[in-house]
Design a protein that fits this description.
- Helix content is about 75%, strand content about 5%.
- It has about 400 residues and is an alpha+beta fold.
- It has 2 domains: about 1-240; about 250-400, Reverse transcriptase/Diguanylate cyclase domain (Alpha-Beta Plaits, 2-Layer Sandwich), CATH 3.30.70.
- It has a 4-stranded antiparallel β-sheet, with helices on both faces.
- The longest helix is centred in the first third of the chain and has 68 residues, at about 1-70.
- The chain is globular, with a radius of gyration of 28 Å.
- About 25% of the residues are buried.
Length: about 400
């Protein structure tokens, strides 16, 4: 009897110890998963807002040019109002990225590297902000009386300041956005390793105890493992943007396309997909190195960002392939692609001026949702891809060589 009591006591002690250990491990895993999801959501939000800050700086520069080139006092007043809105949002967002904002979901806990990069762009930020304030003041002083010449005399240098500093600010924000993404990847990688360590410890405990204590819990533990694995997969899939181009990646781009296809079917509205393939990228990589090839991809992505409308999206489908989703007819999409071609030619002129020995070129194909019965996102992309290859082959034949 005493022996049975001792055995029971030992088993009970082992059971309690194992239970506490497993409970602690489960709690640690759930906490790590929760922290990872929260951390990833926070970084995704920060990256999105930092990306929006880049686009706002481009909008401010564009509106400054419109102010400089408009001959109508009424039009200038209208542009000035939009200019003031853009500057206000831009300045507030800059401060909230640094100090945090509950409204925007920003914690404001930036790393030393990020803070250093913010410090580097501060002169450009202040220069643009001060120049913008001067421009708005000049508009207020001159346009009650319609003094166009006085406005231009006062603002000429300020507009130049905005244009000069916007490029540096944009480069700095691109570097900050990339740093945010790098830090997010690093932290998620660390937490993933921590999770795997927890898994191994738990597995060892289960193997030791399972034959005489934990057999009843075996099925539940397996279910927990499967749930954890699903959470890990979910974390890996939460990345939204392509690291190189800051465009949407294939997964998030295709999700958007599927949603828009369903909307177009319900509302019977037009939807056009453009599939793009850069010409000659392999040759550039082989001849001038992968840095040149990366520059081609990044340059083309920037052209897409500044050319397509805000209601449309572009995403990197993979490698040198891109997709644009137009919420319009093929005719309207063709007009946009004409502007893309024109901007590519401008970029090639810049390459030429910088002694680049290669040229940016691309082929594209369009597919329209109304032209396919029972259309799906995949079918639209496949149809546009097929049209692109026809265009590429026609280009090869006309040039008498491969592109």
């Amino acid at each position: 009897m005493e022996l049975n009591k001792n055995i029971t006591l030992k088993l009970r002690i082992r059971y309690i110890a194992a239970f506490i250990l497993l409970a602690s491990l489960f709690a640690a895993i759930q906490t790590a998963i929760h922290i990872t999801i929260t951390f990833n959501e926070n970084f995704s939000n920060v990256i999105n807002i930092a990306g929006r800050q880049r686009m706002l700086s481009q909008k401010i520069a564009k509106e400054a040019l419109l102010l400089a080139n408009s001959d109508s006092p009424g039009k200038i007043q209208e542009i000035r109002k939009e200019f003031e809105k853009s500057i206000s949002v831009w300045v507030k967002t800059h401060g909230k990225l640094l100090s945090g904002s509950m409204e925007l979901g920003l914690k404001g806990k930036n790393s030393k590297t990020v803070l250093s990069k913010y410090h580097e762009i501060e002169p450009y930020f202040h220069a643009i902000r001060d120049a913008a304030v001067n421009i708005m003041g000049a508009a207020d002083r001159n346009f009650p009386s319609g003094n166009l010449k006085g406005f231009r005399d006062e603002t000429g240098r300020d507009i130049e300041v905005i244009l000069e500093n916007e490029k540096h600010f944009l480069e700095g924000m691109s570097s900050i956005t990339f740093q945010y993404a790098t830090e997010a990847d690093s932290m998620i990688s660390f937490i993933r390793k921590l999770l795997f360590s927890f898994f191994f410890i738990m597995l060892a405990t289960i193997i030791i105890e399972t034959f005489f204590i934990f057999r009843p819990f075996e099925i539940q533990i397996q279910k927990d493992f499967e749930e954890i694995e699903k959470n890990m997969i979910l974390l890996r899939e939460q990345a939204t943007y392509d690291d190189m181009t800051s465009l949407f990646n294939k997964r998030s781009g295709m999700l958007f396309l599927e949603q828009e296809v369903n909307k177009a079917k319900r509302a019977k509205t037009p939807l056009t997909v453009c599939f793009i393939d850069l010409d000659g990228l392999k040759k550039v990589n082989d001849t001038y190195g992968h840095e040149a090839g990366d520059e081609m991809i990044i340059t083309f992505a920037e052209i897409l960002k500044k050319t397509i409308r805000s209601s449309e999206i572009s995403f990197r489908y993979g490698g040198d392939e891109f997709v644009i989703v137009f919420l319009s007819s093929i005719a309207q999409a063709e007009k946009t692609m004409t502007r893309v071609i024109a901007n590519v030619e401008k970029a090639n002129q810049v390459f030429l001026n910088n002694n680049k020995r290669w040229k940016l070129d691309f082929s594209y194909g369009l597919s329209f949702s109304g032209s396919l019965s029972g259309t799906t996102a995949e079918q639209l992309v496949a149809a546009a891809d097929e049209q692109m290859y026809r265009s590429k082959n026609a280009k090869k034949e006309s040039r008498g060589k491969y592109v």
